[in-house]
Amino acid sequence: MLNRKDYSEKRDHRRMGVECPAVFRVDGEQDWEEALARDLSAGGLQLVTERELAVGTRLEVEMRPEKALVPPLRARAEVARVDEAAEAGRAALGLAFLEAPR
Question: Is the N end or the C end of the chain the one with fewer CB atoms within 10 Å?
Answer without folding.
Answer: N
